[in-house]
């Protein structure tokens, strides 16, 4: 795939006007207040993984609507107080198995991997969290679940779960609540960005090739799924564009990230048809903590971006912050 989006020098300056609803702050403050009306009620159950250097726990906590959200928490053996990362998973995936992600714990961090409600059946080794909310009308997938009203949309629930995952890990014994970072790729990157804009006092946010950014451009720039789900819906529901785009404007992480208070480490890939680079740069250039924030660009990669190269880069970024 050749470069198809803006030239790289224009991407570096790309800071489009965003469609920000007048009541965006109230929408999210009331959403989180409602969710926090339920006790986060973290349950940790030690599981036997056969691993000697780390302890792994099956995690359950209360997310949106008090719904019980699953995850894995893995940390180094011992009672030292450690910093923590919360990881969010990409579209269609789930929390998988605890031995699949050991690098952070091996490096001395607590690591909470949040399950995706209603997902976990598309790739990987599965998920364990249902989404009890009704889907409403829409095409297959998650982009159009609740598309007629932002209060009903799937990503209102998922992003709230992401906030509550931070709330949850901050209550875990042996975690330093002042040193919690969030990260993820694609949909996980979108959740990390949303959480960075909604939760104060994070150590860092590290979104890779984030989804759900600059949605007004994304849904008309690429023909790839999941953004294509919106076009498929509008192809049938002619005349619904204004209502659909209004719903999505409450969930656009380029908008939500404007209020982030933690340094960010982003990545973009110039051949990425799934999350086009201009949509990622829109989020980066609007990001609320520009001082100390960075973006890595992979010129010859698609949506895979930097893959396993990201961990070493992220570890070094956090080590600098901790120093």
From TrEMBL:
- GO MF assignments: carboxylic ester hydrolase activity
Q: Which InterPro entries match?
A: AB_hydrolase_fold, AXE1_dom, CE7
- Annotated residues that bind substrate are located at 91
Q: Which SUPFAM superfamilies match?
A: alpha/beta-Hydrolases
Which processes are annotated in GO (biological process)? Answer: polysaccharide metabolic process
What positions does the domain Acetyl xylan esterase occupy? 1-320
Q: Which Pfam families match?
A: AXE1 (PF05448)
Cite the active-site annotation.
186 (nucleophile), 272 (charge relay system), 303 (charge relay system)
User: What is the protein name stated in its UniProt record?
Assistant: Acetyl xylan esterase
The record lists the organism as Serinibacter arcticus
């Amino acid at each position: 795939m050749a470069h198809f989006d803006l030239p790289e020098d224009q991407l570096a300056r790309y800071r489009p006007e965003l469609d920000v609803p007048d009541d965006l702050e109230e929408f999210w403050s009331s959403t989180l207040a409602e969710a926090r009306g339920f006790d986060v009620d973290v349950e940790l159950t030690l599981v036997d993984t056969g691993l000697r250097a780390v302890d792994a726990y099956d995690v359950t906590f209360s997310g949106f609507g008090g719904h019980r959200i699953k995850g894995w928490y893995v940390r180094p053996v011992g009672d030292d107080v450690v910093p923590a990362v919360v990881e969010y998973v990409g579209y269609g995936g789930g929390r998988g198995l605890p031995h699949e992600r050991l690098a952070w714990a091996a490096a001395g961090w607590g690591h909470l991997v949040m399950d995706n409600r209603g997902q976990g059946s598309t790739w990987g080794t599965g998920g364990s969290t249902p989404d009890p909310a009704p889907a409403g009308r829409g095409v297959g997938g998650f982009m159009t679940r609740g598309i007629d009203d932002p209060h009903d949309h799937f990503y209102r629930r998922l992003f709230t779960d992401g906030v509550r995952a931070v709330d949850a890990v901050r209550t875990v014994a042996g975690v330093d609540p002042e040193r919690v970072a969030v990260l993820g790729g694609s949909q996980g990157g979108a959740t990390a960005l949303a959480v960075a804009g909604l939760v104060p006092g994070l150590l860092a946010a590290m979104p890779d090739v984030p989804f759900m950014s600059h949605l007004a451009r994304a849904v008309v720039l690429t023909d790839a799924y999941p953004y294509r789900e919106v076009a498929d819906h509008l192809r049938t529901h002619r005349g619904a564009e204004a209502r659909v785009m209004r719903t999505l404007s409450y969930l656009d992480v380029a908008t939500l990230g404007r209020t982030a208070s933690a340094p960010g480490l982003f990545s973009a890939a110039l051949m990425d048809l799934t999350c086009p680079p201009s949509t990622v740069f829109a989020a980066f250039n609007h990001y609320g903590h520009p001082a100390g924030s960075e973006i890595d660009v992979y010129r010859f990669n698609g949506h895979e971006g930097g893959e396993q190269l990201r961990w070493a880069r992220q570890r070094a970024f956090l080590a600098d912050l901790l120093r």
